[in-house]
Amino acid sequence: MTRLVAFRAALVVALATAGCTGFGPGSGRPGGTPVILVSWDTTRADRLNCYGYPDRRVTPNLDALADDGILFENHISAAPWTPPAHASLLTSLWPSTHGVIGSFWEFRDDGHRPQAFNRLAESRTTLAEVLQAGGYATGAFTGGLTIDPHFGFDQGFETFRTTMFKLTDENVGEMRDWIGERQHRPFFLFWHTFEAHAPYLGTAFLSEVLPEREAERLREAVGRYAARFERKAVGPAWFPKMLKRRRAYTRDVTEALYVGSIADADRWLGILVEDLRGRGLYDRALIVVTSDHGEEFGDRSPEIFYDAHGASLHREMVRVPLVVKLPGQDRGGTRVEALTRGVDVMPTVLDVLSLPGPAEMQGESLRPLWEGREATPRVAYAEALQDRHEQKAIQSSGYKLIVQIDAGTVARQGRAHVPAVLESRWLFDLSSDPNERQDLLAAPRRSGDERRADALEVALRGHVAAQETDTDEVEVHDELLQQLRSLGYVE
3-state DSSP call for residue 91? Predict the structure, then answer.
């Protein structure tokens, strides 16, 4: 607790002036400013209507929230899989700094490696810890597993539930009860769910990709599976086998189920918003909706279209939604085109509340962007961290460089490292090629592109070398290991 003493001293001063400068607990509003951070795991931005998805009506509730808030059009996650991305979201630190950079591939070597994993170090300060020190009640309702308390994600939370893998009346009801019990004081709610993560259980759009009779049969099969899954009678690995037996394991079917799952998450978001309105909390709440990473549906290979994330850093993996609804719906309907990063969320929340944050934060508040006064474009970094090899990326001034590090170097040097010799690298001009289809370093090469790639590589190397990693290790107990195995992370 000693590392929070300085925060508490600073917060005494900050809260004394918050009534004049911000929306914080001392702002004069009864109960202060509720803070609600929502993470839809595995949600790529381009499958949301407010981000331009045209094919189906998927996200009416998120769209309405965006109308009341600020939508960031080019928001980049720090990693394409759950633990490092969420650690960056909750600490405003890049992965190679917060140190949650292990891979569950390490558990696939038949016991030759110790069953240990990086966990968020106690020396790191989370958003929940800062808000808790500022007088907030703090609660997390999550899908658990890869953001289990075992890995340090409970730091600063008085309540931490891991029941929200898929959403039900029961687990959402528990969260709503938690809000009701704390609605007369400042509270911070972190709501995370794997609703859009495989297995995809959203059947609303099956009739668009299958004949109606086949669609109805598959809807019934998915419903039976969902009931058994909720009872833990089957695991996620059984779902694609079921699709294959029914000859429904295709890109069109899995994507329809995925988008249907996003629609289901959106429906539950609407229930939360209506609950906040009914309690008189919505207007004064700060609500943030985002994700940790996307999902691939044949974007790079026609054979890859189910539960595909973690190993690459292309746009479909790291461009995720970010919608921020300010208290009083201030700046409602604003859209920001500038590049933003997952590490910017924590300093933005604290800025809105007029609360100080830890000096170690590596992100920046997004306020200058919605106020139209930012001069220097931001630089986004991303680290893959899940496969045997490693990819790292830098995005700046309309260009993006991805580099790949071979598995042998990763095994010898670790992941917070860029070797002198790279396995591969790719350069994309995002202004003319936003979906990253044309590698500018492929033949025939232009000297200007080579120089640009070299400059970005130097900047990327400098960034990685400057990170001071601080992490703890934790033994992964058998029960959690079995849960991760059932999800497909461990073989």
Answer: helix
Token digits of residue 365: 């508040």
CA-based angle 436:442:446, to the nearest 5? 105
For the cut 90, the answer to whether the pLDDT of residue 102 exceeds it is no
Element containing residue 429 per DSSP (H, E): strand 424-429
Q: What is the DSSP string of 97-127?
A: HH-----GGGGGSTTSS-SEEEEE-TTS--H
Task: Look over the chain and give the mean of its residue pLDDT values, rounded to a whole number.
Answer: 90
pLDDT at residue 247 in the model: 95
Question: What's residue 490's pLDDT?
Answer: 61
- The reported pLDDT for the residue numbered 481 is 73
Instruction: Give me the domains of the chain, ranges plus CATH numbers.
Output: 2-209+250-380+473-487 (3.40.720.10), 382-466 (3.30.1120)
CB count, 10 Å around CB of 446?
10
Of the candidates 363, 361, 405, 402, the residue with the CA atom closest to the CA atom of residue 382 = 402
Question: Please, which pLDDT band fits residue 414 given cuts at 50, 70 and 90?
Answer: confident
